[in-house]
Amino acid sequence: MSLINTINYNKVIANTQKTNANLVAVSKTKPNEAIEELYDMGQRIFGENRVQELVGKAESLPNDIQWHLIGSLQRNKVKYIANFVSMIHSVDSLKLLEEINKQAAKHNRVIDCLLQFHIAEESTKFGLSLEEATTILASDRYKDMKHVRVVGVMGMATFTDNEAQVRHEFRQLIQIVSALKNQFFTDNNSFKEVSMGMSGDYEIALEEGSTLVRVGSLLFGARNYG
Ligand SMILES: *Cc1c(COP(=O)(O)O)cnc(C)c1O
Fold first, then answer.
1. pLDDT digits (tens, 9 = 90+) for 142-175
2. Alpha-carbon distance 57 to 98, whole Å?
3. What is the pLDDT of residue 225?
4. Ligand 1 contacts CB of residue 28 (under 6 A)
5. Is the CB of 26 under 6 A from ligand 1?
6. What is the pLDDT of residues 134-147, one digit of tens each?
7. Phi first, then psi: what are they for 210, rounded to 5°?
8. What pLDDT shows up at residue 200?
9. Who's near 206: CB < 8 A, 6+ residues apart?
10. Whole-model pTM?
């Protein structure tokens, strides 16, 4: 019996290919067997939101999987993922970026990071404001970091059926990424990622310019927790 929804997977892949976006298959709470099934279909980017779960899965699954950490990250846990994580979507402070830089240096790596922005109306969702991000990127401490590469932004829209609102919030993130591009990354072609869109809103996100959609339940079925 299949542990994934193949029809949905093929549809999401087809939709992302239209705009050259990439799919982060969000496998949190799902067993290795389900991940292996998607891997066998060619999927290589997987997203997890808990460090312990991510480490366990990375140890037992193929080496060429690109693991993305998409959930909030405590500074004291960066050390567990610094040797292998491919991208961290949830950078929301200079202190966290400094810790990632420090731990990546120990492994002689450069870790790709996204700045997470607060675009939803819900106050429970966390993330930076444009002003806070500007302060980080303008700081000397950031400029001295050799082991992190800020490659774009991430945001989560409000959980709502109101498509106009979701679209509006995604557009805010696009405005943020272009403002930062103009101010800090004009000569830097690697600053281009916009991580937005989940199972319920990824098609809107792609229409609005997402380059990385983070889709879980459409592929793996509903989660009991997480
Ligand atoms: C769980 C999660 C997703 C995927 O959610 P689905 O609705 O299952 O697609 C995307 N992004 C983040 C940050 C998540 O925690």
1. 999 999 999 999 999 999 999 999 999 999 999 9
2. 26
3. 59
4. yes
5. yes
6. 999 999 999 999 99
7. -60, 140
8. 97
9. 15, 16, 18, 19, 21, 197, 213
10. 0.97
51 lines ligand 1 (CB under 6 A): no
Task: Give tens-digit pLDDT for 83-111.
Answer: 999 999 999 999 999 999 999 999 999 99
pLDDT of 224 above 80: no
- Candidate from 15, 29, 154, 198 with most ligand 1 atoms within 8 A of CB, to mutate: 198
Q: What is the 3-state secondary structure (H, E, C) of the chain?
A: CCCCCHHHHHHHHHHHHHCCCEEEEECCCCCHHHHHHHHHCCCCEEEECCHHHHHHHHHHCCCCCEEEECCCCCHHHHHHHCCCCCEEEEECCHHHHHHHHHHHHHCCCCEEEEEEECCCCCCCCCCECHHHHHHHHHCHHHHCCCCEEEEEEEECCCCCCCHHHHHHHHHHHHHHHHHHHHHHCCCCCCCCEEECCCCCCHHHHHHHCCCEEEECHHHHCCCCCC
Amino acid, res. 35 = I
Alpha carbons 119 and 207: distance in angstroms, whole number? 17
In angstroms, rounded to a whole number, what is the distance separating the alpha carbons of residues 16 and 9?
11
Measured between alpha carbons, how far is 58 from 112 in angstroms, rounded to an integer?
17
Ligand 1 pocket, residue 71 CB under 6 Å: yes
